[in-house]
Amino acid sequence: MRRALLVLPAALLLACADEAGPASDLTGRWTAQQVEASEVLDLVQRGRLLSGTGTYYRFINPPSGTFTVTGTYDRPDVVLSIHYDTGLTTTFQGVVAGPSRLAGVETYPGGGSDTLAFQRD
């Protein structure tokens, strides 16, 4: 059952892929907007390795803060470890669905998750 829940979001993400195909370099600023939150991520790519910093804004406590990321990009798959200033570490698994779109699922300790879609600024 759990596997089916993960396959469905992945299939939906791929269905929304840009026809231009995934970007070869993810370096740049990426923004995710949600009703209750937003995140701005500045990524740097060196080979298949990713690193970066970012800022999050929430309408609940804590209202805003910073994070760092490390990860990998094996076209089109992206895996990020997100280290928030609160001490929380999450994992983002997604796909690059075109030159300016990155979409996936952020998983929290304990198993909770949220879908995230980043647009390149």
Structure commentary:
By secondary structure, this protein is mainly beta. It has a single domain, classed as Quinohemoprotein amine dehydrogenase alpha subunit, domain 2 (Lipocalin, Beta Barrel), CATH 2.40.128. 12% of the residues lie in helices and 56% in strands. The protein contains 1 helix and 8 strands; from the N terminus they run αββββββββ. Strands 1-2-3-4-5-6-7-8 form an 8-stranded antiparallel beta barrel. β4 and β5 form a beta hairpin. The N and C termini lie far apart (37 Å). The N terminus is likely disordered.
Spatially, the strands of the biggest sheet line up as: 1-2-3-4-5-6-7-8
CATH architecture: Beta Barrel
**Contiguous uncertain segments of 5+ residues:** 1-8, 11-19
Examine the coordinates and then state which fold CATH places here, giving the name of the CATH topology. Answer: Lipocalin
3D shape: globular
**Largest sheet geometry:** 8 strands, antiparallel, barrel
Element order: H for helix, E for strand: HEEEEEEEE
The tally of strands reads: 8
Question: What average pLDDT do the residues reach?
Answer: 85
The computed structural class is: mainly beta
Classified in CATH, the superfamily is: Quinohemoprotein amine dehydrogenase alpha subunit, domain 2
Total count of domains: 1
Instruction: List the total number of helices.
Output: 1
Q: Assign a percent range to the helix content.
A: 10-25%
- Residue fraction in strands: over 45%
- CATH class descriptor: Mainly Beta
Radius of gyration: 14 Å
Instruction: Give the CA-CA distance, first to last residue.
Output: 37 Å
